Amino acid sequence: MRTAGLNAVRIPLGYWAVDVQDYEPYVSGQVGRRHIIINAVCDVLTPPQYPYLIRAVQWAGELGLSVVIDLHGAPGSQNGQDNSGLIGPVLFTGNTTNSDRSLGVLRNLTEEFSQAMYNDTVIGEPVLACGPSFGGMLIVLGVGIELLNEPRLNSGSFTMVDLQAFYSNGASTVHNATTSNAPNVTIHDAFWGPQYWKNYYPTDSAASQPANGLSIDTHQYYAFAPLNNLSHAEILDSVCNISQLLKQPSSGIPSTMVGEWSLETGAPPTARSSSQDGSDDQARRTWFRLLAEAQMVAYTPNGPNQSSIGWFFWAWKTEYDIDTWSYRRGLSDGWIPSDASNTSTYAFPVLRDGCVDTTYNYTAPLVAGSGIGGRQAASWVLLGSLLGLSTYLIW
């Protein structure tokens, strides 16, 4: 990841990695669990995954990678989808126990990762980064904690009022769990868009400006409704529009990262789904390269006082290295630039509005993985200087 120009990792975590009860089916082979006291009255048995999380964060620190730890699955499920660990109705708000257990997990994580040994990895205010889940680039966060991934509102009794109450309690839990080095708090936009959260502060509904130490996570997918039926041209227009939204100086939108994106798109009526292997299809590899660079540039800040703080691709690798979901596969086969932090490795020029020049004449090599490289042009270096990449991006 580091050699690919990435400077951050986002680690999705199910609550059961910290707090699993004997009746829950998520973990097998639980020999060797240890007790962790998360408050004055509650002991939690921690399954074997937790030490591996600690090790992963330590490895990231050794490599100079920042970390966002994301509560991806909450008790009862916050979205009813497989990524939460439970498919079916949204039961997160069905009782206070689910919320209380989630807050206990957040408290536990904060107490562990606010220790001085993690200072350069998990703690801090947003600086700049961008990159994929399990590998990415951001304005450097140190270690951040994302309170809840992809909550689905209006499912059952889960409303915005419920969500903001949990965000308030979650932010207070993180900030009160340590006397110093509090992790940056990230909240998901619940698919309402970053604009909805303008001037939002979790513990002050009347806030007049975004909170320090708070960032928004928004997910941009063209594989799922309502954006799964767009043409290639419409997708590129949409990406550019997002770029211009996030790059508005002093917009009042909290620091925003695109915490998940991929190269998957919906299939037109007469075409294959892009999840099918396209490594031997030159036209598809050309499209992958354009779509990858368009999103990398769009989600990366190029000036001061912008909302954008970077991105995470989903994912670093997948089962079978599926072409549209594996950053590692894209690197090896040449449709993702070899160094995300170095625009001279990009194939498409970057325009001053923070979008790529989609009209530039580029065609992927005949063979996947051959002839990988960016444009060799002096004007590229000058453009990078004009964009202020060396000034505002900390890679």
Textual characterization of the structure:
The chain starts with 7 loop residues before the first strand and ends with a helix. The C terminus is likely disordered. The chain has a nine-stranded mixed β-sheet with strand order 1-4-7-8-9-10-11-6-5. A two-stranded antiparallel ribbon has the order 2-3. Helix 2 runs parallel beside helix 3 and helix 4 runs parallel beside helix 5. It is α/β, with parallel strands linked by helices. The chain is globular and about 55 Å long. 26% of the residues lie in helices and 17% in strands. The protein contains eight helices and eleven strands.
Q: What is the gyration radius calculated from CA atoms?
A: 21 Å
Task: Going across the biggest sheet, name each strand in turn.
Answer: 1-4-7-8-9-10-11-6-5
Instruction: Tell me the structural class.
Output: alpha/beta
CATH topology: TIM Barrel
Query: Architecture, according to CATH?
Result: Alpha-Beta Barrel
Task: Characterize the biggest β-sheet.
Answer: 9 strands, mixed
CATH superfamily membership? Glycosidases
The CATH class label is Alpha Beta
Itemize the secondary structure elements and their pairings.
Blueprint: E1 8-14, E2 34-39, E3 42-46, H1 49-62, E4 66-73, H2 96-113, E5 128-131, E6 136-138, E7 143-146, H3 160-176, E8 184-188, E9 214-222, H4 232-246, E10 255-265, H5 282-298, E11 308-312, H6 327-333, H7 378-387, H8 389-392
Parallel strand pairs: 1-4, 4-7, 7-8, 8-9, 9-10, 10-11
Antiparallel strand pairs: 2-3, 5-6, 6-11
Helix pairs in contact: 2-3, 4-5
